[in-house]
Design goal:
Length: 140
């Protein structure tokens, strides 16, 4: 399943086994896929460890969902210093969550927070007049 905000393109595979395709568009953005191994997430600490490592959150990262939202909001602003992973303004980062079924079953609260907070990041940016920056791709 792919949850995307305004992305029309063929996405490069998160793994060799996975390739998500959406209708191509002449004005397509270029997503950047980030693999998040769902099997590594067993509690809030491992969630924050996994994302901090995958996206290069700063040493002062607060390890809560408010801090996660702040880091993810600035993915296209390298000067903000909130991540070491960046995209160009107008592009999208696709968080490719592997083993999502087991992750959702094992950590339903964390799974729901990931979905809701990803949506909030995009909502927050759109409210500020900026383009959405996140998409989620789930697979087992």
């Amino acid at each position: 399943m792919l949850i995307a905000a305004g992305v029309n393109t063929q996405l490069p595979c998160c793994t060799e086994e996975l390739c998500c395709t959406i209708d191509p568009s002449p004005n397509e953005t270029m997503p950047r896929n980030i693999l998040i191994e769902g099997k590594r997430i067993s509690d809030w600490n491992s969630f924050h460890d996994t994302f901090a490592e995958a996206l290069g959150f700063p040493s002062f990262y607060g390890r809560n969902m408010d801090a996660w939202i702040d880091c993810m909001t600035d993915l296209d602003d390298p000067e903000a210093g909130m991540t070491s992973t960046h995209i160009t303004r107008g592009d999208v980062i696709v968080l490719c969550i592997s083993a999502v079924g087991a992750f959702k079953k094992r950590c339903p609260e964390i799974y729901d927070a990931l979905v809701e907070c990803s949506a909030f990041v995009n909502h927050r940016r759109i409210e500020m007049g900026d383009p959405a920056v996140l998409a989620l791709s789930f697979y087992d």
